[in-house]
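Structure request: Nucleoside diphosphate kinase-like domain-containing protein, Nestor notabilis.
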Amino acid sequence: MSNPVLVCALRRINAFRVLADALERLTQWREKLSKSGSLLQIVMALTPEVTFRQAILFFTETEFVTGKTWFYSHVYRLLKSLCFSHLVGERQRCHTESLFTYLQTGAQILCTVLLIKPGAWSRRLARILRKLHIEKFTVVGMKHINLKPGIASGLLSSEVKQDPAVLEAHCSYLTSDTALVLCLQRPNAVKKLIDLLGPEDPKVAQALDPSFWRAQYGISTVQNGFYGSESYQIAVRDMKLFFPEGLCYTECQTLEEEEV
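Returned structure:
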């Protein structure tokens, strides 16, 4: 090649679809991509298998690392190259964890929290558990709970909290009767559960896809049937909040690292 190229390894949920969509939105590519989707492979790998084959051509184990580890390891090397090695002793070096392992083993088993709101679980629990089984979730924690106002408020989004009347309606409903809290485990559990629940408004969920759980069991934006942890960080918070005594999960490195 006459000119250098930039090779990036990117990581996120649904990486292939999201990156493909982003590239298609680029103005300079729109006309060409509309004629042939195969041009995507000029700038991105289209499958995990191709990703793995291409990654091992450009990256070594020590270069292909995760999250903050990449940042800290590069900061360490930069400081050392600038003769500031006394600021970062050998004990401060971060352990690098290769992403090649993730490419080979596939999606990690994670946990998430599903709260079935008052009135939604007492008559439909068997059907909901059946749906969870079909979607390959494993129940690793379950308890009935009467939510306190402070905890109920903590589960609500920032948008809900901006309106005092709406906030009061949500809190009153969540604390009106017993709720059922489940901790669920499966690969990519957090996103899978959110995808199944659908939009917060049951009417919107019904319009988009009647199979959404909130479309089937929700009545209104307040009585919409379910709460689900929206991110892995929130899921860890929810697990520690509702199951401080621990969980009956199978061996899971990510949970052990979070000390759940």
